[in-house]
């Protein structure tokens, strides 16, 4: 009898701490609440394959720069207690004369791209980006969205961090040009 009771207590305690999987869409809904994700969530899964539309190589120009973005989908990814299906981005920026201004295309370690997914809301996917010039706030949130009319066209925009910066290392902050454009730019799937 003691063994039966012990087994029942073990089963009940495990079920109280059961792990759960939710969709990206559910995670977005939870992100709008003050409570955030429930403690039982251990995996945020792309159950509807919404991220697949972004995967691949995308190219475009903006101003006097040429851009190439590569997005891969990682499953059950991350080093935290909650794992996510998310996009990892790599990209390069070149001047029109071919000078490489920035490139993470050859970065092997996904953790070192400093360009990873956050969440999907409606049709837009958000990624965090941390550039190489942190003291000038060359970091922020990147928004990508596939065109309603053409699945081979994607729009990208950048919301630059507005937090404190080090004026001694970035004295011309107001004139500093971030790697990514604030205005919406068009990319074509390759």
Automatic annotation (TrEMBL):
Domain of life according to the entry: Bacteria
Q: Which residues form the signal peptide?
A: 1-20
Q: What is this protein called?
A: DUF6705 domain-containing protein
Q: Which organism is it from?
A: Chryseobacterium cheonjiense
Q: Which Pfam families match?
A: DUF6705
Q: Which residues form the DUF6705 domain?
A: 1-139
- Lineage, highest ranks first: Bacteria, Pseudomonadati, Bacteroidota, Flavobacteriia, Flavobacteriales
Entry coiled-coil feature ranges: none
* Alphabetical keyword list: Signal
